[in-house]
Amino acid sequence: MGVMSNGHGSPSQSRRLEEQAQKLVEASSAGDIPHLEALLEAVQDLNRDPAHLPTDGFLLQTAARQGQAECIRFLFERLPGCIARPNKRWDPPLPDGHSYTDIPDKWHVYQDGVIHEAIGGKDPVGLFRVFFNYGMNPNVGLGYAGSPLAQAVSSNQLPLTEYLLARGADPNGTYMSSSLLGVAARQPTDDVLRALVAHGALVPGSQALRQAAHYWRARTAETLLGHGADINEVFAREEYDGSMQLVRVPLGCALHFAVEGGMRRGGPAEQSDFVRFLLGRGARTDLVNDRGETPVQMAERLGKTGIVDVMQSRGVDE
Predict the structure, then answer these.
(1) Each residue of 228-278: pLDDT tens digit?
(2) Alpha carbon 99 to chain centroid distance?
(3) Is 120:110 a contact under the CB 8 Å cutoff?
(4) Does residue 306 lie in a domain region?
């Protein structure tokens, strides 16, 4: 969208453009396709100066945020930027000669913004149904944000997760150096994790039990153990030593991460219950972390006397 090349400096013309801009945004937000069609017709001959009218991307972001799936479908067919990219209509180009920093804050657009607004909006499944109708790959990359599935999993959106998986999204993908199973294992429920497993996510090697232990997710841990997780797996990271040889450094087992945990709401009683759960499922107490500590030694160092008492009550010593 833009402004006429001549006369746009007059106060009356500026006011008219401001009014048109506001109406375009409101119609996109409301999904008012007839009104939007008339407004777009009225501005179709204007130059694309984003200082005066919102860009195609902003109208799409606005409609996506409000879950206006049919409005998105209409805009895909009507906006010049979408028509110019028939295989990527959800990512219309910025007006010629402009970058993201040139766009006024009130019409803020950003990389993959339409997809992100759809994920965080009111009808993500409806929006992605339209996206897929127009050829979106279910594993489309979102840079540091991973993929749509990674975002659905990290925000614990079960319906969107299930829909993306059904359309071919990779359940064994990663997000921020963690497996998607590991991301799901942090969530307060195990529904998303179960959906990933049901669509082929591989539990062994996912380190999801490490995440479940760190966040004291007993139900999730139970699910993982039922699908092949090893309660005594020693998790590790790879790093280069002084001679630049790649080595694996042991970080500890699930019991270590349960002792260390605390990055969520909860208290000593909940942590103790999770430690009891692991011990009851056969967790070994002699495995060591990168400091050479057993879980009880780690608990002593961290001053977690309640955990020490739980372990010692089970006959665990140093």
Answers:
(1) 999 999 999 888 888 898 988 999 999 999 999 875 666 788 999 999 999
(2) 25
(3) no
(4) no
Give the global pTM: 0.91
* Main-chain dihedrals φ then ψ at residue 110, nearest 5 degrees: -150, 165
CA distance linking residue 149 with residue 173, whole number of Å: 8
Q: Give the domain CATH number at 7.
A: 1.25.40
User: 3-state DSSP call for residue 240?
Assistant: strand
Does a structural domain hold residue 19?
yes
Q: How many domains does the chain have?
A: 1
134-155 pLDDT per residue, tens: 999 999 999 999 999 999 999 9
- Pair type for strands 178-179 and 235-240: unpaired
Tell whether 98 is covered by a domain. Answer: yes
**Residue 113 counted as domain residue:** yes
HSE at residue 168, side-chain half, CA atoms within 13 A, is 8
Nearest to residue 193, comparing CAs of 204, 182, 178?
182
Query: What is the torsional sign of CA 195, 197, 199, 205?
Result: positive
CA dihedral 133, 139, 143, 149 (to 10 degrees): 90
**Integer CA distances (angstroms), 1 to 51, 104, 179, 199, 246, in order:** 10, 13, 41, 43, 54
**Short-list 187, 200, 268, CA closest to 208:** 187
- DSSP H helical segments within the chain, as ranges? 11-30, 33-43, 56-65, 69-78, 80-84, 113-120, 124-133, 148-154, 158-166, 180-185, 191-198, 208-214, 218-226, 254-260, 268-280, 295-301, 305-313
Provide the domain limits for residue 66: 1-136
Give, as one character, the DSSP assignment of residue 171.
Answer: T
- CA of residue 101 relative to chain centroid, distance: 24
The band of 111, judged by pLDDT with boundaries at 50, 70 and 90, is very high
